[in-house]
Every structure is written in structure tokens, then in C-alpha cells.
Design a protein that fits this description.
mainly alpha, Growth Hormone, Chain: A, 0% strand, single chain, 76% helix, 468 residues
């Protein structure tokens, strides 16, 4: 096959260094990927990855619904229950930070499959835990698997879907988070009516067997193979993809590849995140993830207790939590449409500011109607924010560090998710609930300002052109 040089012309005019050879291979593979029409084959790969994400999200949301029974089962204090709930975030921090580097070193599909084994095993161990200490350890393991999966899944989808549809599909991928959360609530609602909380975790661990489907049907990223110098592997996987796409097109000829500019890799590993051209992006993403997750999880963790203190009995039911979460479905669908229509930056900034405004009114609700309306608006904007955030992050790094950059941004966000609940615990006695919701709104506003001032637009651009 012909290769594309870094300048975009066909053929190799002179011997190249290892870095330049890898760059030429990556350019050729990118050109072949980007020319492919989007067919049921790529959508099928997306559906498999999204299904794994859905099962993962169910495990993440389960504790929201069973923390009360767990607290009673082990006789935990409020502080101990809060500490237990933070264990999964600790695991996610470790998983997100390590998975990115592992995926950039050993491949996307391998690490993705390992992550599913971890969260499946962790969920089952939660159900079998004989003590609160064992449950906390299982929650760390479960969180580790979830933290591993999220940045790797983002990288996989971003590298297989063509530029014109890439943002929409990653946003749709994140949309499986509220779907998983709602499904987890429905499962808990059904299971807790005839069994204890342990069966919720055991049942949610069983879908990890879905890893066999991933292993059979999801190919390794050709972009990653080319970037790591495996020209033969990249060409083999790319040829298989092209054959299956052609089959879906009833044998129609594929469009000719268009040259893609790819820069020679002058830095590798973590140093790339702060190399010229990427340091600004890294500062922006780390700040964005930190403030967005501090506000989101800080409020989410305390929401039930805060609203019960306001005298709203509806907050005691699982049904209420499911009800306001339903707004997340149109929220992520709207974001998936807007990020390709208006762009990543305006969609993300709008969602963050909308969440801040809804958060303010949610905290000041004086009736059940106001509470539900503000809650629906907050969830609509929050899950729209999540979709845009997940679509935007992996686009800003080159292939050889995409998972690493995405993983570390997510890990910094997990620090925010750990700090948020604790910080609210300190300021609540001093400022009251008004201060708590002001903190959440302020965190969303700061995240929006960071994107507005430091972010760049990536709509419609190939991953390689963004990296240039």
C-alpha cells in the first residue's frame, strides 16, 4: 500500500527515522479510516463499547440506592457511610491514572477487557463482603475497574469513528451513564423488594462476562498500532475493517484516502502533556475536570441529606432519584446534537452555566414542584456537560498519548470528586445550605470560564489535524 508522508504527499522520498516512519504509517492509516463511510459495522463496534459502558455505569450508580440499607446492615455512622461512598472514587482515581498509560503502552482492547474483569469481580465481592472493611476494599477494586474503562473507551470510539460524526458518538457514549444509572435504580427497586442489598451487586457483576463479546468483535485501534510502529498489524486490521465496511455497502468502491498531516513524535509519555502545543490544553482540561467534578459530586453526595433537612419527604424514595435522572436522557441527546452543530466549546460552556443556574434554584426551592423542576433542569444540563466533556477530552491529544492524557484528566477530576463532599461537610455548618449550593454553582462557573478562555474548537477536524 502507499504511505503518506508528514507533508501529505504519496510515497516516501527518502529513508526516514523510526519516528518519521511511525508518523508516515499513522498518516496513511488515518487517511484510510477517515475516508470510510459510517456503516452498521462501525455502529456495531460502538454499540458493544457502549453496552460495556452501560453495565459499568450501573455499578457506579448502585451505591446511591443501597447506601441506606448498607448503613443499617453494618451500623455505620454518617461519617463512616460517607467514607465508604468515597472508596469507589479512590479506586477510579487510581484506575484512570494508570489505565491511560497502560492503554497507550499495551493497546486499547487489552486494557478495556481487563477493566471489565476488575469491575465485575469488584461488584461480586461487594455482594459477598463479610465486613465493612471488606466492602470498602471491594469498592476500591470496583472503582479501579470503572476508572480504567472510561478513558480507554473514549479513546477507542474517538479513533474508530470518522471526524464528522466523532463528537456525536462520544457524546452518545456518555449518554449511557444516565441510562445505566436509571437501570440501576430500577434494578435496586425490584431487588430490594424481595432480597437484601448484596444481591444488587452480585447481579450487576454478572454482565462482566460481556468481555467475551468485546474480545471477539472489537478490533485493536489501527491508529494505535501504526503509532507504535506495528505497520503490518495496522494494515491487517485496517484491511479487515475496510472489507467489512465494503460488505455493508454491497461491494461499492470506497472513496480515495485524503492525505492527513501527522507531526513527527518528538516527545513521548507524560512529557508530551506539557510539551509546546499541549501544555495549554492540559492545564485547561485538568482545571475543567477538577471544578466540574467537584461541583457535580460534591452536590450529588450530599443532596439527599440536604433536602431531607429541608423537609422534602419525596427525597427519601428511589423513585424520586430516578425521576429527576430521566432529564439526563434528553440532556445528553441534545448535547450530542449541539456539539456537531455549534461546536464543543459553546455546548460545554452552555451546559456548565446552565447547571450553575439550575443548581442555584435547586438549592433555593421552597416547594416540591420547584424542587422537581429545578432538579430536572440541573440533571439535563449536568449530563449534557458530561457528554460534551467526554467528547472534547480525547480529541486534544495525539494517538500515542491519547489514553494517557484522557486518563490523567479524569484522575484529576476524581480528586475534585473526593474533595467536593468533604469540603461541603466543612462549610455546611458555617454557611448553611445557601453556601453549599453556591459552592456547586461557583465550581461550574469556574469550569466554564476555563473552557472559554483556554479551550479551542475541534468540531469537524480530524484527530491528526487537531494534534498538529
Amino acid at each position: 500500500m502507499s504511505s503518506l508522508t508528514t507533508g501529505g504527499s504519496i510515497g516516501l522520498a527518502r529513508p526516514l527515522s523510526d519516528e518519521a516512519t511511525s508518523t508516515a504509517q499513522t498518516s496513511a492509516i488515518a487517511a484510510r479510516l477517515e475516508r470510510l463511510p459510517l456503516t452498521s459495522y462501525q455502529r456495531g463496534i460502538f454499540a458493544i463499547i457502549a453496552t460495556a459502558w452501560f453495565f459499568d455505569s450501573m455499578d457506579l450508580g448502585a451505591l446511591t440506592f443501597v447506601l441506606g440499607p448498607i448503613k443499617q446492615s453494618f451500623g455505620l455512622s454518617t461519617a463512616e457511610a460517607g467514607l465508604l461512598s468515597s472508596m469507589s472514587f479512590l479506586g477510579m482515581f487510581i484506575g484512570a491514572a494508570s489505565a491511560g498509560m497502560l492503554a497507550d503502552r499495551f493497546g486499547r482492547t487489552r486494557v478495556f477487557q481487563v477493566s471489565m474483569i476488575f469491575w465485575g469481580l469488584g461488584s461480586i465481592l461487594c455482594g459477598l463482603a463479610p465486613s465493612v472493611e471488606a466492602l470498602a476494599a471491594a469498592r476500591v477494586l470496583l472503582g479501579f475497574g470503572m476508572g480504567m474503562e472510561f478513558p480507554v473507551a473514549q479513546s477507542m470510539v474517538s479513533e474508530i469513528i470518522p471526524a464528522k460524526q466523532r463528537g456525536r458518538y462520544i457524546a452518545l457514549l456518555e449518554g449511557f451513564w444516565p441510562l445505566g444509572f436509571i437501570a440501576s435504580g430500577l434494578l435496586c427497586y425490584a431487588v430490594l423488594s424481595f432480597a437484601d442489598w448484596r444481591w444488587v451487586f452480585i447481579l450487576q457483576g454478572i454482565p462482566a462476562i460481556f468481555v467475551l463479546i468485546v474480545r471477539r468483535y472489537v478490533p485493536e485501534s489501527p491508529r494505535w498500532l501504526a503509532a507504535h510502529g506495528d505497520a503490518a498489524g495496522a494494515d491487517r486490521v485496517m484491511s479487515e475493517i475496510e472489507a467489512k465496511v465494503t460488505q455493508r455497502l454491497n461491494g461499492a468502491a470506497l472513496p480515495a484516502p485524503q492525505p492527513q498531516f501527522v507531526e513527527v513524535q518528538r516527545t513521548r509519555g507524560l512529557s508530551t502533556l506539557f510539551a509546546p502545543g499541549y501544555a495549554r490544553r492540559t492545564v485547561m482540561l485538568w482545571s475543567l475536570w477538577f471544578f466540574a467534578l467537584l461541583g457535580f459530586y460534591g452536590l450529588t453526595t450530599w443532596l439527599g441529606a440536604l433536602l431531607q433537612a429541608k423537609g422534602f419527604p419525596v427525597t427519601k424514595s428511589v423513585f424520586y432519584t430516578i425521576l429527576i435522572s430521566l432529564a439526563g436522557i434528553p440532556g445528553f441527546l441534545t448535547a450530542a446534537w449541539l456539539i456537531e452543530r455549534l461546536g464543543r466549546k459553546p455546548t460545554l460552556v452552555g451546559a456548565l452555566l446552565g447547571a450553575a443556574i439550575a443548581c442555584y434554584f435547586y438549592g433555593g426551592a421552597t416547594s416540591q414542584t420547584q424542587l422537581i423542576v429545578a432538579g430536572l433542569c440541573m440533571q439535563f444540563c449536568a449530563f449534557g456537560m458530561w457528554s460534551a466533556l467526554y467528547a472534547y477530552t480525547p480529541e486534544l491529544y495525539p494517538t500515542h498519548v491519547r489514553a494517557t492524557g484522557t486518563g490523567f484528566a479524569s484522575a484529576v477530576g476524581r480528586i475534585g470528586s473526593l474533595i467536593g463532599p468533604s469540603l461541603i461537610g466543612f462549610i455546611l455548618p458555617v454557611t448553611g445550605q445557601a453556601g453549599v449550593f453556591a459552592l456547586g454553582a461557583g465550581a461550574f462557573v469556574l469550569a466554564a470560564l476555563v473552557v472559554l478562555t483556554l479551550g479551542e474548537e475541534t468540531r469537524g477536524r480530524t484527530l491528526e489535524s487537531i494534534s498538529h
